[in-house]
Specification:
The structure holds two protein chains of two kinds. Helices cover 56% and strands 14% of the residues of chain A. By secondary structure, chain A is an alpha+beta fold. Chain A starts with a helix and ends in an 8-residue tail after the last helix. By secondary structure, chain B is an alpha+beta fold. Chain B has 23 helices and 26 strands. In chain B, strands 1, 2, 3, 4, 7, 8, 9, 10, 11, 12, 13 and 14 form a twelve-stranded mixed beta sheet that branches. In chain B, strands 17, 18, 19, 20, 21, 22, 23 and 24 form an eight-stranded mixed beta sheet that branches. Classes of the chains: A alpha+beta, B alpha+beta. Chains A and B meet through helix 3, helix 4 and strand 3 of A and helix 2 and helix 4 of B.
Chain lengths: 116, 908
């Protein structure tokens, strides 16, 4: 079970990253921690495997990366959403909701295959 | 990884982001954060490090992946950015050029004319003069003939006796063969009968050119025997056209008739000829004009020309191939030695002439090489002027845009970006210009091929030479780039923003001086060309006006050549008798036509067509006959002839109707003949004998003016006129002087001829004037071309001057405004601008004239009847350029005078 859950969550990593930076820009470490907390530690990826996803999203134009200084004056690469990314987040979220609702509806229905 | 970046790394980043280092930094930061977190929870540093790495994953692998990805992406971005920059530049360039139509059109036009024109001319010169002959090792091919030591003229036409002797001792020659025209072969192409070009050749002819039949076999010596010579080789072209490329064409036959279409007898007997071979495609005998030979037949030496006691006829052209390592000079010496010995053995045969050898290439192009190269020189000058003008334009533009460039630089454009922008602009112009140049070149070549004399060797092989187009275009492009880019880049260097202030004249004066120098040089070159054109023009006018001894106005000419069947023996006598009887009848009829002033007949060829029979002269009291170069040119004419062609009778009388076959033999000499043969003696009444059966013991009854039978550029020769009634001939030509347009009476004269000779096919009508024109054609052509170039040079130089003046006025708008505001008269302003232009023009003219003076002396060989330092020509050229300069400055001057001081002082 944990394996399947992990697989599903891994497939939605892109979406989670977009959500992670939707409020304010964040660097890779912050995004990693957020994803962990938000998924209740269900997603236990290695931190490093976040980065290919980040780079990919940047190439697609959904994220924009910028080098900035942290509070204690160290260089870090911050990612934030582009307008295209924001749009993608909205659409993907809506899609997920519809998908989840459909599954729920199917699980709650009284009908059985025999009666349809 | 230290928490603070070392200083040197910060500076390194100025050079540009480094994707690999970025990946390292990002991952290092992440690990650092993880370590801190663990340490904050109390984990010892070493353990924290280990846990951090475990949580992160395989650092090295991740690093590799990310770096590869990053690098790829950066490259893609850079390419995209470069491409966007380029299309942006293209669009910007297009907009800019459209906004400055004057500049754009000027640059494109100059490029098109300069490059296109020079490409066209060079292609022609290359095909006609420079290119090697299309034979295997053509530098070994030579022509053998005789040389007249007095005039230096090479006589390519040789009698078979000479050829036989030369061929017997080849020595330095690997092969030596002879050829002469054949005729009578006709083909029907699309229903129109056409004379085929046929040559008689000796057996080893094709050995000289190393060309061998693709089908069948060639001639052998056995074929050069009377009775076995009816075999023929045909060309690939004829094989395809007439025989449909039939592989079994060997054995099929060809027919020849007894005469050629204009009525003269054919050199080869009529009958059937068997085809024994087909020559390969692309093989051309070196015949004038590069016309394709269709048929080759064996040459048989006529019975009476086997020894030197028989008759002398010189139809053969002798070509040979030299052995390896032998120079033309050595071959020449060899032939000269042989010929000298032959001359001793056969006195009188050679006259003063020596044996000589010249390269075949020289034989074909020698007479035209000089003036073709002159054309090339003229075109080179025009190209140079175009380059200078282009340089000037680019320089002006770069300076005018100085502000714009500096602004761009200040706003952050890199030098490369600015340079690229300018480059794209220039290249767009040059692309358009070169395309147009291609069209100009193609058109120009078409025009030249039509306009050039047909007899020009290889003129039919002229084609566009793309290499030349490329080279000349490159020359102009590079010039433009050098003069356009360099100053622009100079401006883009970061430095004090001088141009951003007003005027910015400080560092442009150097450039202005450069532009002035360029304009002066342009004008100088234009002056040189104009002077050249003027010299050619005056030379041509004088040559055309040389008294050739005839009055060619309103003279109709028509050939009279009855048909004969030369296949039967003894055909000549009755034919000549018939002609002798018919000519007076024809003349009577022609004289009766209204509009005819006088009519005459001359046996053989018309004057100005170059060919004349020559004979030795014996004068009593002188042992040695006049021979060699002193031989007289003999013509049989009717009494009306002198009046018809307009030759004045200087002494005594002309030939009369009373001078018939039965009466005393008489002769009329020209002044040159009288002087040469009789010296100071009274010519009238003297008796001379013209050898070879022309006039034994004839009395001189009159002297006429000299006629330059070869045209205005030929020397005066001694001539003798004998009565047609006392001579024997087969045909000749009528000369009819008319009151009005000569060709209008052509039909009437033709009818008169047909009444006596109904079987003659349409005799061709011409005029003496057009014959004369034909001789001058080459000169006229050169004159026109050089004149065109002169005009072109004037136009371009004028445009250059205009550009400079316009620019100056624009630059000085403010200063002019101030002067006008302070009360200066507009007329003064205008005259000062024109004055400046005049200074430049005068400087240019001075340089041009002083350069042209020594060079004109080298034109001496082309110029007949004119001095290379004719002051009229120079003065006219200078005046023309001065006028041009004033005209070019006029518009800018007027613009300067119209400057509104208020506007000029306010804006900048």
């Amino acid at each position: 079970m944990a394996n399947l859950e992990q697989q599903i969550l891994r497939g939605t990593l892109d979406l989670l990253i977009l959500r992670a930076v939707s409020a304010e820009p964040a660097h890779g470490y912050q995004i990693a921690r957020w994803v962990g907390r938000a998924t209740d530690e269900l997603l236990t990826l290695e931190d490093g495997s976040l980065y290919p996803a980040l780079y990919r999203l940047e190439e697609r134009g959904l994220l924009h990366a910028e080098w900035r200084l942290t509070e204690d004056r160290r260089r870090a690469k911050y990612y934030h959403l582009t307008s295209a990314g924001r749009k993608q987040l909205r659409e993907e979220t809506a899609r997920w909701s519809r998908y989840a609702e459909a599954i729920f509806a199917a699980l709650r229905t009284g009908a059985t295959p025999a009666t349809t | 990884m230290s928490p603070r970046e070392p200083l040197w790394r910060r500076y390194l980043r100025f050079l540009g982001p480094d994707p690999r280092a970025d990946v390292d930094d990002e991952m290092a930061f992440h690990l650092e954060e993880l370590r801190r977190e663990f340490e904050a929870r109390g984990v010892p540093p070493a353990e924290a490090e280990r846990r951090a790495r475990a949580l992160f994953g395989d650092v090295a692998a991740m690093r590799r992946t990310l770096q590869a990805r990053s690098t790829r992406r950066r490259r893609r971005d850079a390419r995209g950015e470069w491409w966007r920059g380029l299309t942006g530049d293209l669009r910007l360039a297009l907009r800019k050029l459209r906004r400055e139509p004057g500049f754009s059109l000027a640059a494109i036009g100059m490029l098109a004319l300069g490059v296109g024109g020079s490409t066209a001319i060079f292609s022609v010169v290359d095909a006609v003069v420079l290119r090697a002959l299309p034979y295997d090792r053509s530098d070994r091919l030579v022509q053998v003939g005789t040389l007249d030591p007095r005039t230096g003229a090479f006589d390519a036409y040789q009698p078979p006796q000479n050829f036989a002797d030369w061929q017997a001792r080849p020595d330095v020659f690997v092969a030596m063969e002879a050829t002469t025209l054949a005729g009578g072969f006709r083909a029907n192409e699309d229903g129109v009968p056409r004379d085929l070009l046929a040559l008689q050749v000796t057996a080893g002819y094709f050995d000289v050119y190393r060309a061998y039949p693709q089908l069948g076999r060639g001639f052998t010596e056995a074929h050069q025997v009377e009775g076995s010579q009816r075999v023929a080789l045909i060309s690939d072209g004829l094989w395809r056209r007439q025989y449909g490329a039939d592989p079994n064409v060997i054995g099929r036959t060809l027919r020849s008739t007894a005469e050629l279409t204009y009525g003269a007898p054919s050199p080869v007997p009529a009958g059937t000829w068997t085809i024994i071979g087909v020559m390969p495609r692309g093989f051309r005998s070196p015949v004038s004009g590069g016309r394709q030979t269709d048929v080759w037949v064996p040459y048989v030496v006529p019975e009476n020309q086997r020894t030197r006691d028989g008759s002398r006829s010189a139809p053969l052209q002798v070509t040979g191939r030299l052995a390896d390592g032998v120079t033309v000079e050595q071959a020449d010496a060899h032939i000269r030695a042989i010929t000298a010995r032959l001359a001793e053995a056969h006195p009188g045969w050679f006259g003063d002439e020596m044996g000589a050898v010249r390269s075949l290439h020289e034989a074909m192009v020698g007479s035209v090489r000089a003036w073709m190269l002159l054309l090339l020189g003229a075109v080179g000058v025009v190209l140079l002027i175009a380059c200078v003008n282009v340089a000037n334009l680019m320089l002006a533009r770069a300076t005018a845009r100085g502000r714009e460039i500096q602004t761009r630089a200040a706003l952050g454009a890199s030098r490369w970006q600015i340079a690229r922008g300018l480059l794209v602009e220039s290249l767009m112009l040059w692309a358009a210009g070169t395309l147009l140049a291609l069209l100009v070149a193609l058109w120009g070549i078409g025009v030249l091929r039509a306009a050039l004399p047909e007899a020009l060797p290889r003129i039919s092989t002229v084609a566009l030479d793309l290499r030349v187009l490329g080279v000349t275009a490159a020359v102009v492009v590079v010039t433009g780039l050098v003069f356009g880019l360099a100053p622009a880049l100079q401006l883009s260097r970061p430095g004090p923003a001088i141009a951003l202030r007003e005027g910015g004249r400080g560092f442009t004066t150097g450039r202005a001086r450069l532009r002035s120098i360029l304009v002066v040089s342009e004008i100088a070159m234009a002056v040189m060309l104009t002077i050249g054109a003027g010299l050619f023009l005056s030379s041509f006018v004088r040559v055309a006006n040389v008294d050739i001894g005839l009055d060619p106005r309103n003279v109709l000419t028509m050939e009279v050549w009855p048909r004969f069947d030369s296949s039967k023996p003894g055909w000549a006598e009755p034919a000549m008798t018939r002609s002798a009887a018919a000519i007076p009848e024809i003349l009577d009829r022609v004289s009766a036509i209204p509009g005819v002033v006088s009519a005459g007949f001359i046996a053989g060829d018309l004057p100005l067509t170059g060919y004349s029979a020559r004979a030795e002269v014996v004068v009593p009291g002188r042992e040695q006959p006049f021979d060699g170069a002193d031989r007289v040119q003999v013509r049989h004419v009717t009494p009306g002839y002198a009046r018809a062609v307009g030759t004045p009778v200087v002494r005594g009388r002309y030939l009369e109707a009373g001078d018939t076959r039965g009466s005393t033999p008489v002769v009329v000499l020209n002044e040159e003949a009288a002087a040469r043969y009789l010296g100071d003696r009274e010519p009238l009444g003297a008796t001379i004998t013209i050898e070879r059966g022309y006039a034994p013991q004839a009395t001189v009854v009159g002297v006429v003016g000299n006629v330059r039978l070869g045209g205005p550029e030929s020397a005066v020769r001694p001539e003798a006129y004998l009565p047609a009634a006392q001579g024997r001939f087969l045909g000749g030509a009528l000369a009819v002087r008319t009151t009005g347009e000569p060709l209008a009476l052509a039909d009437a004269v033709r009818d008169a001829i047909w009444a006596s000779f109904p079987e003659i096919s349409e005799p061709e009508a011409g005029t003496l004037a057009s014959l004369l024109g034909g001789l001058l054609a080459q000169r006229r052509f050169t004159m026109i071309i050089v004149g065109l170039f002169g005009g072109l040079a004037l136009a371009i130089a004028g445009a250059g001057l205009y550009g400079v003046m316009a620019y100056l006025v624009t630059q000085r708008t403010r200063e002019i405004g101030v002067r006008l505001a302070l009360g200066a008269l507009p007329a003064r302003v205008m005259s000062s601008v024109i004055g400046h232009a005049l200074v430049l023009t005068v400087a240019g003219v001075a340089v041009g004239v002083s350069a042209a003076w020594p060079l004109a002396a080298s034109l001496e060989r082309f110029l007949l009847e004119v001095r290379p330092h004719d002051p009229l020509v120079y003065a006219t050229a200078a005046a023309l350029l001065a006028a041009c300069g004033v005209a070019a400055a006029f518009v800018p001057a007027r613009r300067a005078a119209r400057v509104d001081p208020v506007i000029a002082l306010r804006a900048e």
